[in-house]
Amino acid sequence: MINMSKQCHECFRVLADETRLRILRAIRTRPVNVGDITAAMHVTQPTVSYHLKMLDELGLITREKRGREVLYAFNKNYPCKGCGVLSVSIKL
């Protein structure tokens, strides 16, 4: 129970940022590269990379390297399913 509570707390902390929620919404249906996310969200590439790193550390996204580009996708097996916050936040 403690691990789940701690994990949910971390999930809430990471998802409290609107930019990260927007990124998750952008990648929830298909893999996308950083350039596409940057263009769609009108933010800088370093900003997107920073937020992707946080989402990756929590296990909410996956990365797949294809040649020189990296595609990011929503991890359908994300570790904090128990708290249900993502179902509401990004309308899974």
Overview of this structure, please?
By secondary structure, the protein is of the alpha+beta class. The chain has one domain: Arc Repressor Mutant, subunit A. The protein is built from 5 helices and 3 strands; from the N terminus they run ααβααββα. A 3-stranded antiparallel sheet has the order 1-3-2. A hairpin with a 2-residue loop joins β2 and β3. α3 crosses α4. The chain is globular, with a radius of gyration of 13 Å. The two termini are 25 Å apart. 17% of the residues are buried. The mean pLDDT is 84.
The gist of it:
The protein has helices spanning 2-15, 18-27, 34-41, 45-58, 85-89, and strands at 32-33, 61-66, 69-74. It has 92 residues and is an alpha+beta fold.
Topology at a glance:
Layout: H1 2-15, H2 18-27, E1 32-33, H3 34-41, H4 45-58, E2 61-66, E3 69-74, H5 85-89
Antiparallel strand pairs: 1-3, 2-3
Helix pairs in contact: 3-4
What is the overall pLDDT average?
Answer: 84
Oligomer: single chain
The total strand number stands at: 3
For the record, what is the CATH homologous superfamily label? Winged helix-like DNA-binding domain superfamily/Winged helix DNA-binding domain
Structural features:
single chain, 92 residues, alpha+beta, Arc Repressor Mutant, subunit A, 3-stranded antiparallel beta sheet, 5 helices, 55% helix, 15% strand, globular
